[in-house]
Amino acid sequence: MGGSSRRSPEAADFEAMHSSPEFQELRSKFRAFVFPMTIAFLLWYFLYVLLAVYATDFMGTKVFGNITWGLIIGLAQFVTTFLITFLYIRFANRVIDPRAAAIRHELEGEVA
């Protein structure tokens, strides 16, 4: 009905694409963002856990009112999670998605 259809790639097409420079670049860009971000977040998280276990006096220190460093750092974990999500979405939209779309178009193409 006027819509375009795509061809169905075969297993050999996927294998060839997997070793192509375009796919390797996509994978490299993805890993260059995800691995350092994951390591940074895990270090930040484990720092919080270690402070909670071994620095109870510090974590219990009141900053203002009944707000302690433990509460502030704990809430910062949520803020960090949302920030990482925002950064990843922005990165994926700018870097990953265009490359993935180009690879998909190369694999499936347009069939008239």
From TrEMBL:
InterPro entries listed in its UniProt record: DUF485
Q: Membrane-spanning residues where?
A: 33-55, 67-89
Which Pfam families does UniProt cross-reference here? DUF485
The protein's UniProt keywords, in alphabetical order, are: Membrane, Transmembrane, Transmembrane helix
Could you confirm whether the keyword Ubl conjugation appears in this record?
no
Protein name, UniProt field: DUF485 domain-containing protein
